[in-house]
Design brief:
The complex is a heterodimer of chains A (753) and B (186). With 753 residues, chain A is α+β, with helices and mostly antiparallel strands. In chain A, 30% of the residues lie in helices and 24% in strands. In chain A, helix 17 packs across helix 19. Chain B is 35% helix and 13% strand. Chain B has 6 helices and 5 strands; from the N terminus they run αββαβββαααα. Classes of the chains: A alpha+beta (753), B alpha+beta (186). At the A-B interface, helix 1, helix 17 and strand 27 of A face helix 3, helix 4, helix 5 and helix 6 of B.
Amino acid sequence: MEKCLTTRIVGASVPRKEGADKLLGRACYVDDMEREGMWFGATVRSAIPRGIIRSIAFDRHIDWSEFTVVTARDIPGENHIHLIMTDQPCLADGKVNHCEEPILLLAHPDKHKLRKAVAAVHIEYELLPPVFSIEESERQDVIVWGADNLLKSYLLEKGDVDSAFSRAAHLVEGEYRTGPQEHLYIENQGIIAEYSAERGVTVWGSLQCPYYVFKSLRAVFDLPEEKVRVIQTETGGAFGGKEDFPSNVACHAALLAMKCGHPVKVVYDRIEDLAATTKRHPSRTRHRTALDKEGKLLAMEIDLATDGGAYATLSSTVLSRATLHASGPYLCPNVRIRSRSWATNNVPYGAFRGFGAPQAVFAMERHMDEIAAVLNMDPVELRRRNFLHEGDTNATEQLMREPVILDQLLDRALTESDYSARRRRFAQENSGSTIKRGMGISAFYHGSGFTGAGEVYLNSLAGVDVTHDGHVRVLVSNTEFGQGTNTILTQIAAEALGIEYSDAAMAAPDTGTVPNSGPTVASRTGMVVGRLIERAGLQLLALLREHAGLGASHTRDEFFAACARYRAAHGELVSLCRYEAPPDVHWDDEKYHGEAYGAYAWAVQVAQVAVDTVTYSAEVEEFWTVQEVGRVLHPILAAGQIEGGVAQGIGYALYEKVVMQDGRMANNQMTNYIMPTAEDVPPIHVYFEQIPFRYGGFGAKGIGELPHDGPAPAILNAIRDAIGIGFNSIPLLPEDLYAGLVSNQPAEEPVLP
Amino acid sequence: MNTARNVNGREHRSGGQATIHFTVNGRNRAVTVPPMKRLLDVLREDLHLTGTKEGCGEGECGSCSVRMNGELVNSCLVPVLQAEGAKILTVEGLAVGKHLHPLQEAFLNQGGAQCGICTPGMLMAAEQLLAQNPHPTMAEIREALAGNLCRCTGFMRIFESVVAAAAAESATQAKAPHLEKTHHAR
Ligand code: FES
Ligand code: FES
């Protein structure tokens, strides 16, 4: 272990930095804000999934002179949302590729007049044939994107898969599917924008990544850096749903502000938010696995496909993470993973906590239980025989240099859940009962930070400064949206500088103030940005020691006295650090080979599920999750991240169904898109093992996404344990259980050679 | 109340305004607004009490919860005319002076608030529960909070916050020392 665990502030559950404001109702979310003379904006959207816009007519019953109307023609710069590609228009120009695609914008001083006005814009289309599924898209009968509908593909190969299959004692195949999932942050999307010729564009809003919005605004308005400013307001949940989408809202609000000459607020209501914003990518994963007599993995062939929706958005990077998590935390000498993301005319899918990994882990971990059934082996034992260990390589042939303690995590999960005894007991009780109980398990890892050379390209800059009135500020563009960014980064700064937690604060999340320390995504904040803050703190101390007479050890008062001396002599006191990759990190983006991630967080989860064979409902009764996430910076926040992720994972498995009808979400209301409530979430038991990671902020690795990866397969594995039917598709609703139970067939036994 | 409704109903049909008198967080207030305006909007727009949040506008999420005459209501479903003469408590009325309300204290210490958007409504639902049932069981807590959605926490820490607040409130006048919760972290 590289680092001493004795810290004063890091590792302690200090009060959440902005906690009191949130509890007092004082925290200011975007819809709580007003600007002088503010108008309100609304979006006129496509009613069809694909077609040519033939005409746009404005109903005569409305006095349009009161409104500001913006179309694609009003865009001063590029008509696209700047992301990985530039295929997504800011406003549709002549054609539409999905339902709810924005076509036209309206602003009015009275927000209550907007709804009617939106309905009074009549658009006529010439319909083009749409594509709604992976299967339709890959058939390529109708091309809806590029030359071939293919948004992105990867091929990863390790060893010699084909010859390994010829030596196999067992061959197991399976196909697994996951549906879209809605983020359901409780605060809808919202932005306020202002425009003036001198200052350019300023936006405030609910968002994760100020510099993503910044880049989009620069492109749409063709403005230099100094004329675009993005400020994050308090953000009421995000989960990836406010990674890329706020760029759209911000560009729209800012276009309206420019044209009407007033600040404009655009806040979606729930119905619009559910219908028009991104969801988790649906997926289909086919596994073909070769094993030896002992149940050791010989070869894996994985074919993974996602539905990306109508534009490229983040589909390529989501697919990348899915690919890199598809073979699980297992040692397998021969692996071939082919993955493709297909364009359809669904609303574009986007980032959601886990970012492709939950889809891939669902398939892998369900498949492990199907393999165990074929081999007539305990699923626990099958996993144990194949776990990665320190010194092994995974599918990209990344050497596991850090300790890997999957066995320990598994043992603890089994002990804490009393797994074996419960399984035995349920096996006895089930036969005489209409309620059938089972225990299910999942094991997985999650790569922390951007993939491959991603962190190097991001080239993040972050640091701390000391203001003239003696406050330490953390300078990052990383944002708080519930996960605890403010708290952990100020903990790290205070710890590194030898001052108190209350001495450190976050600088306003404002691109006019803070450097670009990269987006707040990919479980990178604690590990990557935390490390930058730790380094910047140590660098600042070195500066004070050299130039302001700070002693080798210091009190808080001595620190601030030295800061005052430094400032008097030299002016500003700032310490910034740039990302430096850990040594020996090599990544081949062509071959998908090498160090895919700087570090992995590991977990084993256990679900106890009861299936009611009369009502066809499945209920998670208890849940255990054991993880190794490096150093735990804040035990309460960390446990809260895990519990929240597990609850979303339970929703993903059993509750949350996006009903798509002709490319439109049919159940776009909270009344009929159902997430788990206080009565549905079972007791969740959270356990951490801590192995500080030497290149993470005070030893931290990623934590935020990990917990969402495992619940769905653990739950469906528990259902298999309870009733002997292996379901391969989520969400699994009562009607699906019913279908499985009445057909009353045991799991389709996968093919044997 | 009836009179107010009739008068206001007529005025509403003619697109008029009505003056509604009520008590919000112990203060007498009067607003002149369209009588069918949602209580949520009156609180947020006319009284600038933006602590109460809108999550769905259709009575599903509970983030707009306030207490009205001792009952928990979704303020997005209440036309303000129904609040004539009512006593309303919002999140802004929980703390007394500089002291956090025991529920706020507990939510802060136990991690009951993450993004904070559900928190005002959650606090009101919890306050409603503890007012009627100072020592709720876990099942009663779950039931009482079932109308308030939280997407961040998975509810565990919210339940613990309510348990801690109940314990604190029933403790003696002497300020109960905050007991550090034991964690599984090691
Ligand atoms: S906003 Fe009132 S219940 Fe959701
Ligand atoms: S804390 Fe974010 S929704 Fe509850």
